[in-house]
Amino acid sequence: MQARLRFAPSVQDFKYNKKRVRLVSQDSYLKDAAKGVVYWMSRDQRVQDNWAFLYAQRLALKQQLPLHVCFCLVPKFLEATIRHFGFMLKGLQEVAEECQELDIPFHLLIGFAKDVLPAFVVGRGIGGVVTDFSPLRVPMQWVEDVKERLPGDVPFVQVDAHNIVPCWVASDKQEYAASTIRRKIHDRLSEFLTEFPPVIKHPYPSAAPAEPIDWNACHASLQVDCSVKEVTWATPGTAAGLAVLESFIGERLKSFGTDRNNPNRAALSNLSPWFHFGQVSVQRAILEVQKYRSKYKESVDGFIEEAVVRRELADNFCYYNRNYDKVEGAYNWAKTTLKLHAQDKRSHLYELKQLEEGKTHDPLWNAAQLQMVHEGKMHGFLRMYWAKKILEWTRSSEEALKFAIYLNDRYELDGRDPNGYVGCMWSICGIHDHGWTERAVFGKIRYMNYAGCKRKFNVGQFERRYDPHQLGQ
Questions:
Q1: Looking at residue 221, what is its pLDDT?
Q2: Which of 22, 390, 447, 461 is the most buried (most CB within 10 A)?
Q3: In CATH, what is the architecture of 327-465?
C-alpha cells in the first residue's frame, strides 16, 4: 500500500493507459442523469492492483458519482466443485469487507449476469459499466449477453486486468509459440509493467447501500459436486495470496531457476490458485519478484518467462482460437500425425474411473494423480507427463483431451483456466511445440516416459509421498 501511495495518491492523479480498455457497447458517453458507475467483477476478484476496478473508480471520481461493485454468482460453472466455489466465495468475502472499508458497496447478485446485472443497472440509475477480461468462451458469452440486455445509453467497457500487456495489445493474431510472442511482450513491458495507484476510500457515497450478504445462503444456492473437498494448504483471499508471494520470495525463489522441474524440491511459487481467481495480480508478483534480479537472475528470468510470457501466450491462444479445448484447435501437422497413428495399438487402455482413482500400472502417474485429487495442485513438470500418458493409454486423442481436461478442471484449484487448456493441448496436441521423432501412438507429438523422469529426479521419493496407502485410499 505504501508503494502504491508513493506512486500516486489515487487513480485520478495517474496517467491511466487507455490501451488496457476497449469499448464493448456502441455508446461511450456517460449520460448526465447517471447515479453511479458499476464495476462488474468477474475474473479479477481483488480490490487493489486491479486495472478494471481502478478504471471504474477513475470514471466515478471524474463524474463525482458513487461506485458499486457487483459479482454475479452462478449456481454452477463447467466442472467446478465445492473445492473451487469454496475458495472463490471466501476470497469474495474478503473483497466485500475491503469494499466496505472504502465506502464502495459490494453487491453479490445470485444468478447469471444477463438475468441480474441489467436489472441492477436500470434499478440504480447506473450510467456506465466496467468489466474485466477473460478469453474463455463462457465468460465471453456472458459479456455478449449483458451487452445485448443493457440499456443502449449505458456505455460498457472491458479492461484486461489479468495480463500485464493487454491480450489485444500483445498481438492481433494467434501466436505460433512462445518464441513468436516473447519479443512482443518484452517490448511492451516498460509501458505496461508499472506500479499501481491505490483504490481509495470513495468520496461519493451511494444513497442506497448494498444488501447484507448471507454467505451461508450463497453456499446453499450452489448446484455443485460437494464430494471434491476443499484443500487445507491454501487459504483463499488476497491477504493469504500475498503471504504466499512473500514466502516464495523469501524461501523458494533462490531455487526456482535450478529446481523448478524437480517435484521433490520446494521451488515453485504455488501462486496459481490465487492468480486463477484473480485474488493476486500477476503484475504485483512480477513487481515484487524482479526486485531480486541482481541476486537471483536465473530464477527471476525463469519466473517472468512462466508467469508472463507463457501465461499470456495461453490467453492469446484461447482468445484467438475458438477450439482451444478440442483437437480441431491443433496445428495441421499435429492433427495429421495423430490421425495417422489413431489405430496404433495401445500398451494399456484405461477408463476414466481408473484414471481418476489413480489405478494404472504406473506408480509415478498414480502419485501425480493422487497429489492433484488430494491437494488440488499437481507439480508443473508432472502435469506434462500426466497428460501425455493419458494420450498413450486412451482410445484416441479426442478421448485423451476430454479426460485430461475433465480431471484437470475437476480437481486442480486452477482448473478451467487458459493455462490448463493450453497445458493439455501442448501435451496431447503439440500446441506451441513442433514435430519430434515419429513413434507409435504419439506420431510426431513430443514424447515423455518414466525413464526420462528417473533421470530428472528421484521418482521413488515422490511415489512414496503419494502412496495410496499413505493417503488412506
A1: 84
A2: 390
A3: Orthogonal Bundle (1.10)
